[in-house]
Every structure is written in structure tokens, then in C-alpha cells.
Structure of Putative circularly permuted ATP-grasp superfamily protein:
Amino acid sequence: MPKFFDEMYRDAAGTIRPHYREFEAWLAEQASEAITLKRAEADLAFRRVGITFAVYGNDAGTERLIPFDIIPRIIPAAEWAQLEKGLRQRVQALNMFIHDIYHAQHIVQAGVIPPEQIFRNAQYRPEMQGINVASDIYAHIAGVDIVRAGAGEFYVLEDNLRVPSGVSYMLEDRKMMMRLFPELFARHKVAPIDHYPDLLLDNLRSVAPSGVNDPTVVVMTPGMYNSAYFEHAFLAQQMGVELVEGQDLFVSDNAVFMRTTQGPKRVDVIYRRVDDDFLDPLAFRADSSLGVPGLLSVYRAGRVTLANAIGTGVADDKSIYPYVPDMIRFYLAEEPILNNVPTYQCRRKEELEYTLANLPDLVVKEVHGAGGYGMLVGPASSKQQIEDFRQRLLARPEGYIAQPTLALSACPTYVESGIAPRHIDLRPFVLSGKSVTMVPGGLTRVALTEGSLVVNSSQGGGTKDTWILEN
């Protein structure tokens, strides 16, 4: 028996899981030469549309094609229904938490979360204290990273609430599969996801400032040199709204305006893909050329909506992650539907001691880290790497958390040697506005290196289409 859960095969004898039977029968009919040609066609098409991602530190260059695998990750309807329920619950609690800490702070007064974990957090923004945002929604778009481990249980690995990316790859992967293998969709009832841009636009329009009946929505990008610029341009185009940079916007009469060839146009909702620090040089980093001077003052007055809100990062920080189940109990009086991965907070003496004693078996992450950087994967590290990390932990224990090394589930994947299992995760996208909505699916990321557990695109991972089967 494999040590990890296999999404397609039930056991080492190769028994197919029921929801993969139709696909496996189709796959058995395909000639390997035909599949190779289809893979080459996909690469060429992705290169033409510019679907690339920056891989930092890669000597071969800063931009690379995101590898796309043609074997989909398939999830049956009943499993998805439970996942969706858990995601809605979690994101609702996270939004309530962010509103609370910038207002009455009931959760701190109740002693559920130590105050220093919030107010000394680098992502906490005192400028947001007391600001009322539209519909009390802070994380309008959340990308929640889900992994499957053990006997097939789902766990939340991370909550991405600042500027979660990857939804364009989810949509492009589906378009590519439908283009390459239309016959597959005739044989499967795959739930559609192509309405996501419409759902996103409706969601953004629903949280416009009060009194605005026909809101103008824009997507704000740091510019073409940002690693996710393709996604910014893609979403603006798909929603039919303007893609703007900070220099295209200005503040006047306590409102935000966009420069157009027809003159200034009032902007009501900004889907911003620019980090907090760079949004307003008058309020945050004075050296930022990416932001809009005076934006925070308009925001404070409730005359523009920012999605996601300033200060959401405090809720997706890895030092806050261990408390999310407690948030769900505190705000919703419910038990969490989705479990966290067991987590050791290295700022606690006994948990630091446990981590130091078990480094070869643990994954250790920086609390403010992202993208797979600044972490130790114990089982995949050399003795020297472990000892170097030990010194970093001893020097600044409060900067790290540790987790057991999960045997992430694997899905058959086309690699150079043929079809082989590779570890995967899933990032569904949850939209919060007047209601909580999501499309059935998400971005499945795959670690293409044999044995690797790091699926991040920035670390060389690839993507798969995610199929949610309809009953």
C-alpha cells in the first residue's frame, strides 16, 4: 500500500476509484504519441497567450511557462459539497474576525487569542481601526489551500486573504482541456467554472459604497513586471472592466477618479492586486510609486471599496492560523467542518523544544512567509540545512511555526518517464459580498519533482484542471 492517499487508485493493485473509472477507460484508449502531441499543443497555446510565472532565483530567467498536466484531478459531488460547506464556514468566521479586531475586539477580551499575536503582527494595520467597510466584508476574494492526507481527510493548510492569485490558471486549464479533449466532457458531467468572472464582478459590484447604484469597478495592478500580471490583465478583460495602475488614478473632492480619454471618471470599487504597503504613499510607504496619494482618506470616508480590504493580512498570517478553529467556535458557535493541520507555535517554550528535537520530521515555516520561500522540509533536507535552520529558530523562535510532514495525496501525472504519482494541493476561491459564493472547483497545483511536497508555481510546480462531478 502507498504511504499517501492516491486520488485515482484505491490500492497498490491498481483498483480504480469509482469517479475515475470513465477517465481511466478513456486514457487506456489513447496512443502515447497522440498524448505527447496534445501536451506540446497545450504548451504552445499557453506560451502564445503569455501564461507565465516568475520563478525567483532561477538562473534560466525570471519568467517560465507554468507546466500544465493533462490528467485532471477529479472530485465527486458529495466530497465537494462537504468541502464547500467547510470553506463557507471558515471564510465567514475569518471576515468576522477581521471586523472584530478593527472594532470591538471581543475575541481578544474573551482571551481566545493573545493580544500581542494580533497587535504586534506585521500585517495588522492600526490605520484601519474603527473604519467601517461595505457590508463588513474584508476578504472579498479568499484562496484557501486544501490538502488531503492520511486516509483521505481534507485539511486547510493556509488561508490566503491578501491578494490570492491563481484563478486565471484555473480558468485557462479548463479551457485547454475542453479544447484538447472535448470527447472527455461528453463522457463526464463536469460542473462548469467559466462563469467565475461574472460571479466576481457581481460580487465586487455588490459591495460598492452605499448610495452607488451603478458602480465603476477597476482592477489595480502593480504593472507588467509583476509575476501575476497575466492574471490581472486576464481578469480585467474577462470582467469587461479597466486594468489600471496607481498612476492612472487620482484623488479629488474626497473621491477616487480614473484618467480616461473622455476625462476623469469616478471609481467606486478597486479590486487591488497591490500590497498594503504600496497602496498610498501618504499613509504607508512614502517611496511607493505604485499607489494613489490620498486613497486611504477616501477609503476611511466610505467613498471607495477596496477588495480585499487593507489589513486583511493579519488573518492569514501563519501565527494566526492555529486560532482559526477557535474563531469558528467563537463567532459562529459551530464546530469546524475542515480541520487545521496540527501546528506547533515556536514562540511557546515547550513547542519550540519539541520542534528542535524533531526537525528532521517536521515542516517549519516563517509566520510571514509565502510562496514556499523561507521554509524547511525536514525529511527532504540535509543535516547541514537542518542545523542551519536550527540556528535561525533559536535566534528568532517567534518567527516560525512547525507542522508534521503530511503525506499529501498524489494524482497520476504525465512526467518524462511516463505516468507517475505526484503530490497535489487545491486552492478553491471563495467570494464574499452580499452572499458567499464560489464556483465548483479550484486550482490544483502539482509538485512535478518526484517526492517533492512543494507545489508552488514560484517553486517550479505545475497545474491540473480540477473536475467536480455533478450527480
Notes: The first strand starts at residue 52 and ends at 54. The longest helix spans residues 77-101. The chain has two domains: 18-209+304-339+406-468, 342-404. The chain has a mean pLDDT of 91.
